[in-house]
Amino acid sequence: MSIIEKAQKLISKKINALSLLDTGWHNRPYDFFLIFGQKDESKSPWIKSSWDVNFEPYFDRLIKQTDSLKETGIRVIKYKPEKRVTKKDNKEFIYHSEVKSGRLKWDLKSHEKWTVLNSTDNYFLNFELSTPIWTVCEKRDSPPDIYITISNERDIENKRETQFGYFIVIAIAKNLKIDSKPILKELSEKINAKATVLKTRKWGKPETVGNWTFVNWIQDTFSGGIYKGQNLHSLDFSELEFEPAWEIIYQEK
Q: Which residues contact 242 (CB under 8 A, 6 or more apart)?
């Protein structure tokens, strides 16, 4: 099992432990967006310059339309390369240790902490945002108003063949009545996303629609296995069938 798969499994276990505490979360409906990003890593969301200009302003417009801006929480998994030497034969090797970011909020200080200047600084794996934070969701007996994840689709050594560089999941509770479609279309145009698609989905309801299958909850959505049960990177991206299961918000020019 690769480091990406191990980390994704850990993320799912942690969040599932929270969601299983309360089966009443299952039926809240969301506008459920998937964004498939370009492969130029210098323009990825975790690169500070790209985040500041291409992503944060649009997410900020969404989050500020909730009552939970100050209660927004972020979790990030990233690794830093360290030179180490084997005890047996004194050979140098690179070890990737996890960077502990501490508690992160939706503010400039936290953005400075979790983003990286370039792809050689750290290996970024996953970003998760919950508005409000999970402990507040538990207390109010409801899943988040807004939930966002960003996953790096490259492996830690950048040897994996990919069809898209990053994968973003955005879920916005429908009862908030946020007009999110034009905001995310504008974002998608700016980054020239390979595709941005939208459907309605309930938080805790596994579902199969056409070729697309989601086996668990919204917080368990990763790119692996969601289309015909296959790895999306083993398929020709241009041949993926989004309609009629999805509304296509944007496709790359």
A: 195, 197, 248
**How many residues are given for the chain?**
253
Among 70, 76, 14, which Cα is nearest to 45's? 76
DSSP states of 17-40: HHHTT-GGGTT-EEEEEEEE--S-
Rg of the chain taking only CA atoms, in angstroms: 18
Model pLDDT for residues 2-32, shown as the tens digit of each residue: 555 555 555 554 444 444 343 458 899 999 9
Q: Which residues contact 61 (CB under 8 A, 6 or more apart)?
A: 183
DSSP 88-149: TT--EEEEEEEP---SEESSHHHHHHHSBSSTTT-EEEEEEEEES-HHHHHHHTS--SEEEE
pTM for the whole structure: 0.87
Please state, in angstroms and rounded to a whole number, the distance separating the CA atoms of residues 190 and 182.
Answer: 12
Q: 142 near 204, Cβ under 8 Å?
A: no
Residues 6+ apart with CB under 8 A from 222: 8, 151, 167
CB atoms within 10 A of CB 21: 11
d(CA 67, CA 15): 22
| Helix-, strand-, coil-residue percentages of the chain, each rounded to 5 | 30, 30, 40
Per the CB < 8 A criterion, the answer to whether 113 and 104 are in contact is yes
Residue range 216-244, pLDDT digits in tens: 999 999 999 999 999 999 999 999 999 99
Distance CA 46, CA 49 (A): 9
